């Protein structure tokens, strides 16, 4: 009997999952709310006509109310009912749990309104049908059908005439209820098999449906196991009623807490319903079968999150994931391991279980869980471990394609083939995903539209939702023209816009069968971006923990702190999004999450690693250190390149004063490979927008990486290939690459490669004939010459390109601006070219004076200062300062700042005739004031970061000024103690101030 009940409960649960359960409720449901049973109603009428007390026959249940009605009339007949039914009655917990079973409909023979009260209180959408005319006007798909009428409407079915005329008075309801018995699983609640209602309902349904009648179920909570009548059970089973006895499952609900509002049969009925809702029904099944059945839905995903597994296992046990290890005390997982270890690969009898085990192991591996560790609450219990393995190791080609920017390969291998309609759905989604990655949103949208149609026709709920999810987001992008390099017609845009407006993801999800919604629960987290928001919250929380790590020294192994856990989690999420082809990279919520993660990485990387003094630890031989990132992982660099704007990344690097990025092998080689692939893709694929910021970011990152000579040459050669399209990129990041490599990695800077780049750059300017941006061109030439001079101060460039460039002066050129591009070449020019530069500079200044050109030429010693030109310089500087100081607000870039920078350089390099003439500019810029008169300078205004750039001569001048030295020493000491200084300033402090 127990086995039969459990199997029946499984069928009821299946009906719930498929939205195929109809619940029939009788008086036993409302009894705990103080309302009468059918027998009590009949007894009240019997007393009114002086009839004998119970027991009553089935005929009595119909005739007694009829006798009363015939004798006392309609009013008094309904007065009896009204007096019996307490208007203040409220729903009890049984009413609530009935709706928790998610019935398609509830049919009731009760006259009360407790079901209606329940749906109002819980905000559940059910329509109430009290009479035939209500049935056509039910907007919801779920109904409470009061097949025996309603007390307020006074159409109750109770007396004999009501039953005899039922088919006329409730014709629509009768036929509808009969149809439900044919297509739904029916559960009777609050009845006993002896209730006349049940017998009558079953008889007229069975008479009509005959063999089409499905077995129904009735919950019996009034029998003890020893009194179960097996003959009665079999009798009703043969008539189509499966009786489920509470006593058969009583032991399973013994630990279930009692409900204060319920008692007796009501409490038993509540526990029975609760058990139907929550029972796992795993009795007799193997652990491998149980776990396989729960997790197999995740096979459809290429990547799984640990929380998905936890949710599906419905584990209340410990479920802690630490990197790739799941630590748990789960009994079902222990059983799984025990069974798995007993399986023999060569045993045919074990074949099916081995295949299921392989699938389960694969799902855990998809979540990056490689092993289980069990423990118990016993203090000295031994840990038992189990490693997940598969016959074929998991390979993620997509991860490599994306991580190393193999867009050229993607275009060639994945997108060049003709797209066939009969391709598997996930193959098509993958193609759409890569079109999205390549910025071709139109092609991506068209493929997804095909997938949606196919998936809908085949009831492939998961693929349909994923396709529509992506189609909605890509469709919006397709309408954002500035994001796409693919030109679309106005008609195409209008069609896509109209189609996207009709995609309601919430509605798609809710229209899935309930069992499908429960299986694909993770889609809900995608729908509302909960997955992203949760991870963003965790990232912010981790960032605070990372900041605290500076004050924590650990004896534990390295790479166990919060930053490493965060790095692992972010990598998991990235794989989950990209390996499952979710097209949401462009969303600000995701980018904010990645920005938070990157800042945490940089915080950890720049944390000061203070080794504990041996006197501070109990065991001096233990190496106690701050748990920080000693090197930035390749994955973090990839996220920087793909999800952070170059401007923002530059701010972060400056904020944390990162001049060098240390990489572990093979991350250094992988970064250079990614760089080469990105450049190759940029040159091959005519979609600039997806590459521009990535190249800028990667160039910015490489500027901080200490490169070997051959690696430096490889990067420069890559930049040379970009020169024909360099107008699309930001030259600032190329200049930063050269500057940082020269400043921090000078021994590996190759002069020849910089010279080759300069030649190509000059050739490009010559081909343009007219220079569009003199400032940009000047800065680029300056930095290239700076790099060449730093690597080889004696180098002279003999290429004829120099003279060709210098002589490319057209009448429509601004001669002074043009010469600003030429002047930087002076230091590497051979003698005859240098003379030509000097001559042209003099000519330019005499015919079209430029303060910028004069200052640069003097500082670089292209010309010597002269009284005439110095006068023009000072006059022009006065005019610019006066004009801009009279304006309200400041311009950007600030002309006054530019002027003062030039005057400062003139004073600093001693490129002046009369220093006193420049004193009129004192007070405009602190650094200028310092250089013009260091003895009278107010050293409270001294920025000690100037010390890094000052020559040895100027540092010695400061050391001779006792007041200056005292002030700077105190300021620098305070900064060092507060950890607010560059390492070079610390070196200066100990060298000059101690």
How would you sum up this structure, described in words?
This protein is mostly helical and 994 residues long. Helix content is 57%, strand content 5%. A hairpin with a 2-residue loop joins strand 8 (319-322) and strand 9 (325-328). Helix 32 (689-703) runs parallel beside helix 34.
Rg, nearest Å: 41 Å
Largest sheet: 7 strands, parallel
Shape: elongated
Low-confidence stretches: 612-622
Task: Please report the number of helical segments.
Answer: 47
Give the helix level as a range of percent. 55-70%
Overall pLDDT confidence: 86
Strand order of the largest sheet: 3-4-2-1-5-6-7
Q: What is the straight-line distance between the termini? A: 92 Å
What is the number of beta strands?
13
By secondary-structure content and strand pairing, the structural class works out as mainly alpha
Strand content: 5-15%
Question: What attributes characterize this protein structure?
Answer:
994 residues, mainly alpha, seven-stranded parallel β-sheet, four-stranded mixed β-sheet, 13 strands, 5% strand
What is the gist of this entry?
The chain has 994 residues and is mainly alpha-helical.
Annotate the secondary structure layout.
Blueprint: H1 2-17, E1 21-25, H2 27-30, H3 38-48, H4 58-84, H5 93-100, E2 105-108, H6 114-122, E3 127-129, E4 143-146, H7 160-164, H8 166-169, H9 171-183, E5 185-189, H10 196-209, E6 216-220, H11 230-238, E7 241-245, H12 264-278, H13 287-295, H14 306-313, E8 319-322, E9 325-328, H15 331-342, H16 351-366, E10 371-374, E11 384-387, H17 397-403, H18 407-414, H19 425-437, H20 441-457, H21 461-478, H22 490-501, H23 505-511, H24 514-519, H25 522-527, H26 530-548, E12 553-554, H27 562-579, H28 588-605, E13 625-626, H29 634-643, H30 646-655, H31 667-684, H32 689-703, H33 709-722, H34 731-744, H35 751-768, H36 774-791, H37 801-807, H38 815-822, H39 831-847, H40 851-859, H41 867-885, H42 895-908, H43 926-932, H44 946-949, H45 952-960, H46 962-977, H47 983-992
Parallel strand pairs: 1-2, 1-5, 2-4, 3-4, 5-6, 6-7, 9-10
Antiparallel strand pairs: 8-9, 10-11, 12-13
